[in-house]
Sequence to fold (446 residues):
Amino acid sequence: MATTGTAGSSGTRTAAWHNWAGNVSATPARVVTPASVGELQEAVRRAAGDGLKVKAVGTGHSFTAAAATDGVLIRPQALAGIRGIDRSAGAATVTVAAGTVLKDLNLALAKEGLSLTNMGDIMEQTVSGATSTGTHGTGRDSASIAAQIRGLELVTADGQLLSCSEKENPEVFAAARLGIGALGVVTSLTFAVEPLFFLTAREEPMGFDRVTAEFDQHHAENEHFEFYWFPHTGNCNTKRNNRSQGPAAPPGAVSAWVEDELLSNGLFQAVNSFGRAVPAAIPSIARIASRALSARTYTDIPYKVFTSPRRVRFVEMEYALPRERVVEALRELKAVVDRSGLRISFPVEVRTAPADDITLSTASGRESAYIAVHMYKGTPYQAYFTAAERIFTEYGGRPHWGKVHTRDAEYFARAYPRFGEFTALRDRLDPNRVFGNDYLRRVLGD
Fold:
């Protein structure tokens, strides 16, 4: 939190809020940290009565202004923890308060012998923030975290608490699992979980031409496949995660420190800082960095394999493309970088997801693959992201709701067959736009 701020409507001073990357900030009129769902409902009613907008914010890991407001900022961190585990049904579920951080959820589930089926690559987000923006990992058959939701509770614009599932308010459930904060404030989520299992990860350097030529094969043969291409090189690093019988065989302490701390965080931070100061050195650095990582295989419980520490700060754009078009688009991106004067110090990440049935999921109704481009914090990113976005939109791409993009409601109405279904539901639940802000006005219309 910054120390500067302006006087709020209550006469108190509120500090400016900044997201994790530092590219978005806002100064709310007041900040509310409710200790109960009842307090949250009252905060929404009071804000509406005062003519103020309401936004909930998690840990700020989105790169868009989806949570920014000059009205009332809801911080749900006190609404945290597991509310209950149900093992009685054919498939187990866990109900968790919206402000729970994914790391805490994963640790608690592991102690209960349970796990999410799939997850993204970091654990710092709140469960509601991660699902509301479409956080995903990579998977041939298993989809995003939002797709694992089996029920949720939502405080609507009139302060009412709405319970949603496939059987209860199903039309709201279809949309609110990934609602971008437009439909209300999520207070709890019920996830499908399964008995704890082991994953064996195989990380292997591979040439760009080979990995793109064999992409469909790798996708078909592995439960979770992803790779990273290092711009200015023909080098990639691949990762294949598949279920195994175990036992756990994590990386050795020295190997883990070298790969995950020294190379991926400490040294990576240093070389990015140097590259920001001396951009001409970036291609040479990339060639060295892309050869530094070595092949390794290890086995552990899911969250220890799916997720990694990410302490080097950056700005990111990511688009979901039809899976069958992703290699073509990536090759085009490489050609643009190769012939340009752009200097890119961060690898490009490629992941996949099966089709799902969530109204505004980036994988809604179609099997998808994701291309994510990054730039180190403080480095001008507009030229690179503009070039990438031009390619991604030509292939019918859908931008991640929590990552940098320039698309608007007109574009999304074409990109999402069920876009009108979502906006009509928003008109019904929030006709006065209590949960609106500039970002939602751009991407959903008014």
